[in-house]
Amino acid sequence: MRKIFYISAIKILKFIREPGLFVIMLLLPLGFTFFMGNMHSGRVSIPVAFVDLDQSTYSEKLIAQFSANSTYKVFTASPQKASLMVKQRKVIGAFTLAQGLESAIRSGQTPKIQVQQVYETAELLTLMNDIRSTLAYIHGNIHIADAALTFIQQNKAESIDSKEIWEHAYDNAISKWFPSPPVSISMTRLNNPVTVKRQMMTHSSVGFALFFVMYTIIFAVGDILTEKQQGTWQRLLVFPLKKWEILGGNLLASFILGFIQILVLMIFGIYFFDVNWGNALPLTIALVAAYVFAISCMGLALSGVVRTPAQLHATTPIITVCTAMLGGTFWPLDFVQSKILLFLAKLTPQYWAIHSIESAIHYGGSFHTIQGPLFMLLLMGLFFFIAGLWLVKWE
């Protein structure tokens, strides 16, 4: 066991003398966390196009109502231009208000609105519901304005400005909805009161820490390949060292370096990005340790597959990026609906690490709640370790 610590200490000292990779893998996740975490800090307007073929009071009021809503960025365009905007993804959809919209609503028929879209999104479905409710809202206000104008015309002998009175009645009807609507809804969050920005900052801090630490760990384990090229590996085999002691020393060094890197990123996240890593820090640290162990063993297996450091440097980004995208370190997997992708995600260490760590951060819990992901990470690490023992060439 003492020999493992000696080998590990030599590896760490070598890494300290050449700290470039470690420093870069600290700065990159901090930069990505800052930019990705702040992407959702401001208000984002949803772009939408309207094609007004009806040119009626209803269509005019509908477009005006959405233009006044800061949630949407409204464009009015011709049918050809609106179709082009949809194809170029400049808007999430184009709504064509067909001729006869007003007459259909007034006669009690169902008005037809044509929708052009590239693919269906949650925002587009919400927008469709908003259009339906806004048309009903406009329809009620127009009826009020019509009734008010009819009453004034019947009771006023002198001539009146019908358009001015109608607009005044319509605006007055709208004003009755605000600032106090007929129904008030009070909502209480049952989970932790975390804003969207806070959630994205937390996910970015955890996700990028788990992603970039893979490079540090894999390249640290992959130092075996450099030793083979320089002849150091052959000299180690001459010494009275067992194979598992040599590999154990390499794995322990990469584990310590990776664990230190994540701890440093956790401290930066807490004090510079105001990321709450949760009250259950022992559980979080246990999950981090299991993840670092799994990635260290993955690096060992990868070092047995490739032959040279150049091949390792070319292969590592492909593996890390693909597994990180599948595992959900770049973005939450709540947006993914494909059952195949979700199944493949569960085959990556990142999936079990980030989901369990975020659960521990947001909801706390006990060892019982993390024992499943912890077991999966240790099992993956054991699998990669056995594969590494079999794949590593000792000559």
TrEMBL record:
Subcellular location as annotated: Cell membrane
Membrane topology: Multi-pass membrane protein
Pfam families: ABC2_membrane_3 (PF12698)
Record's keyword terms, sorted: Cell membrane, Membrane, Transmembrane, Transmembrane helix, Transport
InterPro entries: ABC-2_transporter_component, ABC2_TM, ABC2_TM_bact-type
Domain ABC transmembrane type-2: 170-395
Transmembrane regions listed in the UniProt entry: 21-39, 206-225, 246-273, 279-302, 314-333, 374-392
Molecular function via GO: ABC-type transporter activity
Gene Ontology CC annotation, any one: plasma membrane
Major subcellular site: membrane
Recorded family membership: Belongs to the ABC-2 integral membrane protein family.
Identification of the protein by name: ABC-2 family transporter protein
Organism: Geosporobacter subterraneus DSM 17957
The organism's taxonomic lineage, starting at the top: Bacteria, Bacillati, Bacillota, Clostridia, Peptostreptococcales
